[in-house]
Amino acid sequence: MVDFGDTPEQAEWRNVVQAFIDDKLPRELQDDQKFAGSLGGMHRGPLGNKQRVEIMKDWRKEILDRGWIAPAWPKEYGGADMGVMDQFIMKEVFNENRAPTISVHDVGSTILVHGSEELKKQHLNDLVNGDVAWCQGYSEPGSGSDLASVQTRGVRDGDDFVINGQKIWTSGAKYADWMFALVRTDPEAPKHRGITYLLLSMETPGLTVRPMEQITGATSFNEVFFEDVRVPVSNAVGEVNRGWYVGATHLDFERSSIGSAVGFQHRFDDLLDFIKSESSEVNGRTNLKRSEVTRQRLAQCQIDIAVARNFSYRIITLQDKGIIANYESSVQKLFSSELHQRLANTGLHGIGLHAMLYDEDDVRTPERARWGTYYLATVSETIGAGTSEIQRNIIATRGLSLPRG
Ligand SMILES: Cc1cc2nc3c(=O)[nH]c(=O)nc-3n(C[C@H](O)[C@H](O)[C@H](O)COP(=O)(O)OP(=O)(O)OC[C@H]3O[C@@H](n4cnc5c(N)ncnc54)[C@H](O)[C@@H]3O)c2cc1C
User: Fold this and answer.
1) For residue 107, which of 259, 246, 221, 257 has the smallest C-alpha distance?
2) Could you give the count of Cα atoms lying within 13 Å of 102 in the half-sphere of its Cβ?
3) I need a labelling partner for 57 at 20 to 30 A (CA). Which of 4, 155, 243, 378 fits?
4) Does residue 250 belong to any structural domain of this protein?
5) What is the value of pTM for the model shown?
6) 211 belongs to a structural domain
7) What is the predicted pLDDT for the residue at 188?
8) Ligand 1: which of 39, 135, 145 to mutate, judged by most atoms within 8 Å of the beta carbon?
9) Would you say residue 7 has pLDDT above 80?
10) How does residue 142 score in pLDDT terms, banded at 50, 70 and 90?
11) What is the CATH number for 13?
12) Is the pLDDT higher at 310 or at 277?
């Protein structure tokens, strides 16, 4: 029989994490967290961006001091050598308490698996300390889903590659200190075999960043242009021309996000509370809260959240055995991102037209505009880190061994 209960040791660990949160988590941050992530890069919680940033600094330090930012990593790189199940429990307790989790950028795990000792020493501690911001240079104007067709060229010149080309949709490039990029270093080789995974400083001469505005008004995307940008060959993670496989490991880490179901449950519970409450009667109208369709949608969302949670257990079980989840990460990413959209849509539908109001401080705006903005923000989730169609292709080919079309 499947038993999802804790062992005595796991229950003890759960108590330790809970005690930490009870002791250290500022109440105002917990309240503010309800609105986190609602605008894809912007924040509309009652604390406001500036105050939140200040409080988050102290919260970060508490987590950092315990090695919990990269709990799986060795202690020498600022981690806690923590086992997979304990990490999962920790993440669950954080999410259950609406405690912001602070994690290390996935590039760190990729460097840990494939990088040279020099690159580990150079980057891993900075990553954990949060001293350095990273961005991902994968997509190009002609290479998104077909990522292996990247055209940005790196030509060997002595101990350097000289890079020319363009990246696009590079999240956070405007503020980043470093980039990890896929660069074509052997144009003669079959397309998956001539790519190198390179680390490069955003300060390198010849590199230009141009921000792009998106639907929510935020400018988290950028174009990045390379004109004779010189990067040492020693900045390659893994072997030169084998970067496709290094980049794939990175995406497996990125897609396997396992804590999302608990966050969805919170969002769902908030919606349920709101829909049941008197305050959902905006301007004397009850909107759609008693409609049959809303009830049906809410019931379906609750089922789907339970399914997403079970996918998390599947991935965590694989990781516990030392296996990097592969097509299973695609199942998780696909299901969770589409569920998040359904949940946002259900919120919008259940609350009714007032959910479209955009000014969070207007008294007529329900829930500080969070549902309308979730709806906009979740659009991108089925595109970033590989579209839903690409995840289905991966599941079909790698998971079901169906032939490629
Ligand atoms: C929020 C967000 C953050 C992002 N951040 C970054 C980042 O930091 N760095 C970065 O490099 N990129 C980033 N991206 C870009 C993202 O990786 C690409 O948008 C994505 O891979 C799709 O590529 P594309 O936009 O070129 O679309 P295309 O590849 O042109 O696809 C267009 C449509 O065709 C479909 N399609 C394409 N090929 C197939 C196929 N073989 N089978 C079935 N359908 C197919 C797609 O599913 C899609 O619907 C981000 C995107 C988003 C939304």
Assistant:
1) 246
2) 21
3) 378
4) no
5) 0.87
6) yes
7) 96
8) 145
9) yes
10) very high
11) 1.10.540
12) 310
